[in-house]
Amino acid sequence: MLPDRLQTDPYLTCVRPGDPPPVIYMTDTKGPTWPAITNPGTAAFGVIGLDRRVEWHHDRAALAALEKAATAPIDTSVLVAEFGQATVGQLAAKGWLQAPDDLCREYRLLTGQVEISAHCNWGCRSCPVSTDPKPRATMPMDLFTEIIGKLAPYETVKFVTFHFFNEPTLDRHFTDRVEVLRENGMKLSLFSNVSALTPAKIKAIGDASVLYDLIVNLPSLDPAEFRTLTGARTFHTSLANLDAAIDAGWPVKIAVNGVGADVHRNVEAIKKRYEHRGVIVYATQASDRAGELANEFAQNLNITGPLTGCSWPLNHAYFSVTGDLFICCNDYHQREVFGNIRDGSLHDIMTSPAAVQLRRRVFGVQEAPDDYICRGCHDQKPDFPHRQFRPLHTFPVLNTATADRACPKAG
User: Coil, strand or helix: which one is 280?
Assistant: First the structure.
């Protein structure tokens, strides 16, 4: 029995047979990855879902039905009259057409990002800590253990991180937290300036066999420029600890923050020093953290109208130092909170009315407030190269010049 009204699942991305993938995945992989696109055969179009796989469909009328119901709920009787009971029923059975109340309830966790402490010994120009540092705070071990215990059953979670505008290796419970990960069979992607990555911590991580990778923040190899960019005096200590991690055989990536010609110069210098040792070096995506920075990183974005989707609140669970769950890594002040891990199971919180409303705003199902954090974020730009969703209600509608290349025209 079909519901009285239906709307297209906003998580769907359309792909045309023979075209390259229209989306890219960067936030939880060791490099850029794309959807798994199989041979389309004689399919008319494909749909990329939350599992990042393409499901091909042969009925071109089905695409027209999805487009018709993409922007707002529509009476099921209207869809059936135009496209037939079989087509509408099949789309509903796939979950491509859904009852309006069901929209944005789904999620697929790939990482757990835990703010184990609220303190950093650097004040990077690329980070709000440089102008608005937070009071120091440390997550209690019992709260951390509860979070990891509730994340562990999710087999889709690839790793946990310990960072959120902090330096995790300064945490006095660091090695205890590593042991909790080991006990729960979880991996650690360690984002760090490595200033406090001591030999004892390197050994603890190695003994526990929990490391997924080490991402090192290193903006320059020039000591004076390093001091200017980070506000820190740890240049020699950080480089010595980085060498020790590389010597330990760790999978290491160096993220180089900066803008303009300076970042390209620093990337080349760091590559020359480290690439031959198996280290991956790359420039980070410049960001003003949804409007938090007013210096050379400022992007001055103001996204108007319905928002256009984002992977952060679907694929990643963010936990504050007090156990609150909030929208994403750009929410420096944690304005968009939708629950606390002690409220119940992680699934209950991720499917709560507050969480669903948050995702509906992010995907344009509901209008987001004018001051919503996403309106200042480059992930909402339709032409952002690292977009991980292009919902049918915004794409190709917002890209009419390339609509024919985005998906086949229905009809």
Answer: strand
Q: Is the pLDDT of residue 20 over 70?
A: yes
| Least confident window among 110-119, 185-194, 377-386 | 377-386
User: DSSP 3-state assignment of 282?
Assistant: strand
Structure tokens at 241: 């600890």
Tens of pLDDT, residue by residue over 97-113, are 999 999 999 999 999 99
Strand partners, 97: 8
> Please, what is the angle between helix 199-208 and helix 235-247, to 10°?
30
Cβ atoms of 216 and 254 closer than 8 Å: yes
Side-chain-facing half-sphere of 320: CA atoms under 13 Å: 21
Kindly state the tokens that stand for 73: 């709920």
What CA–CA distance (Å, rounded) separates 252 from 30?
10
- Helix ranges restricted to H, 4-124: 60-68, 76-83, 85-94
Contact 7, 69 (CB under 8 A): yes
The predicted structure's pLDDT at residue 407: 76
Q: Which residues contact 167 (CB under 8 A, 6 or more apart)?
A: 117, 119, 120, 121, 122, 192, 193, 195, 196
Residues with Cβ within 8 Å of 401's Cβ and at least 6 positions away in sequence, in order, are: none
Provide the pLDDT for residue 382.
86
Question: 128 and 332 in contact (C-beta within 8 Å)?
Answer: yes
What's the rounded Cα separation, in Å, for the pair 126 and 260?
A: 13
Structure tokens at 382: 């339709």
Q: Which pLDDT value is given to residue 400?
A: 47
The length of the chain in residues reads 411
User: Which of helix, strand or coil describes residue 155?
Assistant: coil
8 A C-beta contact, residue 87 and residue 65: yes
For residues 162 and 115, give the distance between their C-alpha atoms in angstroms, rounded to a whole number. Answer: 6
144: its two tokens: 């951390």
Q: Which amino acid is present at 105? A: R
Which pair of structure tokens corresponds to residue 126?
Answer: 């690329």
Q: Does 220 score more than 60 pLDDT?
A: yes
Helix (H) or strand (E) holding 61: helix 60-68
Distance between CA 375 and CA 380 in Å, rounded? Answer: 7
Residue 62 in tokens: 């089905």
Burial class (CB within 10 angstroms; exposed 0-12, middle 13-18, buried 19+) of 351: middle
pTM as predicted: 0.95
